[in-house]
Amino acid sequence: MAALRRWRQHAGSLRNPFAVTQITVPLTPPEGFYRADWDYRGQRQIVPLAMAVPYIAPDAWVAPNATLIGNVKVEDKCTVWYGTVLRGDLNKIQMGFCSHIFDRCVLHVASESPVGLPPHLIISHYVTIGPYCTLRSCIIERECIIGERCVVMEGSVVETHSILEPGSVVPPGRRIPTGEVWAGNPAKFVRMVTFDETKAFVGFAEGIRSYAQQYFREFLPYSTAYLELEKIMKNGGVTLSH
Amino acid sequence: MLDRAELLGLFPEILLWDTTLILLVLGMMVARTPARPAAPFVRTVAWLGLHCVLLAIVLVGVGIPITINSIHDILLTDSFTHCCDIFLLVGTAGTIMLIVDHGGRDTLRAFETIVLILLSTSGMLVLISASDLLIMFIAMELQTLCFYVLAASKRDSECSTEAGLKYFLLGAFSSGLFLFGCSMVYGSTGVTNFEELGILALTRSWGVPDPSTGIPIIGILCIVVGFLFKITAVPFHMWAPDVYEGSLTLVTAFFSIAPKIAIFANMVRVLNHCFHDHDWQSLLFFASIGSMILGTVAAMAQQKVKRFVVYSSIGHVGYLCIGFAGGTTMEGIQSLLIGLLIYLFMTVNVFGLFCAVRPVRSQYLGDLGVFGKLHPLFAITFSLTMFSYAGIPPLAGFCSKFYLFFGAIRCGADVLAGLGVVTSVISCFYYLRLVKLMYFDLPGEYMIPPRLDRDNSIVLAITVACITLMFLYTSPLFLVTHYMAMGLFAESGVGFSGSVA
Description:
Chain A: It is found in: Mitochondrion membrane. Chain A is of the alpha/beta class. Helices cover 20% and strands 26% of the residues of chain A.
């Protein structure tokens, strides 16, 4: 009987894990509460979080609307492209030399890893990560290519010279051995990387870097947006302090 | 009392002493106030110290027209000392410029380091212009006492403590030896002044059993051995690798640049003025041979960056000793001075590079391999300096070695010149191995150093420009060194005859 009761409770929680009993949300904010729906500053690119300040090497290029949060380290010659979020709140995220993360990727970290590895997200050097990927607490060793829309989950290791085909999903704790091409959901072995491909990884990453150089040159050390803001403040009477 | 001219001659020293005191008081007051508990004040002190050293260079430069100025017969300032002062101060300024940025980093937390560097620099300025055995000893002790503290300045590191202790014991031993030599000379001649010693040496003979008529050979031997200890020449070099490796990189940079200049200048002065006979020459001859061979052979086996630099600097001391191992000839002294100046530039450059990569692990030579890919400019600078150390033709190092060997051949020391050529050819092997490591070997691990700071970059740019472009316009260098050597010989009273040639 007791076992049955436990099972029913468990099933009940399974049916609607997010069930919350009766929270009344006030539709109008309380008096004196003001929340801006338009922040003149936009989204900050670098968000320090509890003593952890993201580090961007002076040689790296991070797109203006990418967001780096918390314990994130972007090393020399890396590029982080538009709309990417690196959220190193629970553990650290580290990008090695000349690695690239393309547009709209989400890199975040879990609080723990199912395998014995530390739950950091470590990307070694000459790694290219395609657009729309999601990476969580995994280790990407040097000279890898992760295709578009891949999902690499916590505790997995992608070893040197491996390729993930677009759309592959690496489940938690999976190891992609060195020099292999994997694809699918869940990711399966496809073929070995050829010798020529092995030699081409570094050149590929460096090519991206030299291509990103023209983006890099488009930006100055500090923005001129503050001039616009001053203009707005003078004309429209927007005040910074209220 | 000092008259006006004497006071003018002492201006750089006075400036350094005053600045030392002011910075010490200022540092104590600011760094220990409760409002800013234990604020690392190093950066500010280093910046002020740097400007003080630059001002001292200007003061020495202003003093150059004063040809010969003897202060109470214990300090002698002439063209030789002025130019050596400038060399020394340039070396100090370069080292402090490397320090300025490191003040903010973890390694250097005590502003006293800068104060000690300034104090020892003033000691070395006095050492350069000393013309009395006692003043020379006191100045040398002022310099080395500061160095003992500097060597042990990183208190939480065992290596640094050990380095300080080793340096202290061996330095005290060599100072004792030196002082014993001085007392022997004084005991048998009754004078300590260089000029009087020179006159005595002209009239008396060497090593005569009767002490009333001769200058004891033992005394001169002890003095020369003391000098060889201080310049890390070979039989007396044992302390150098450990001390240089254990100390902070910046302190090592200072150790391997500044005292070499001061002690070589003083050595030339002493050996040329007082003992312008040839008895000490054989000692220097063997020290030179030993240093060249050991520097070459031992540097080949090194895996650690700092030990490598130490052995290569021992080798370079050997090359510099060639300059007057064949007797204090005009060419020899001139080539020694050229060699010193070029050694100064190259060493400042090398330590600028090592200070830049030091925050990442980079203790081992293999770790330098990353920079060929990571920092092309760094790699080019490093390669140029290594080529220059090796003596590859269009660079400054070639110029220095060439003139040293040339001087040796002119004064008949063909053995030294031949051996120097052979060792420098062998040393090309390991200098070029570093370049190969940097460009052709695949690095095991990518360690990315933080960005070079501005001061360090300026130092590197200046020194590498000097190294590479010196061959285009060498005449100022030759004129200045010739002027210095002339000043030395004009003052020594032996003219040009005190040499072998």
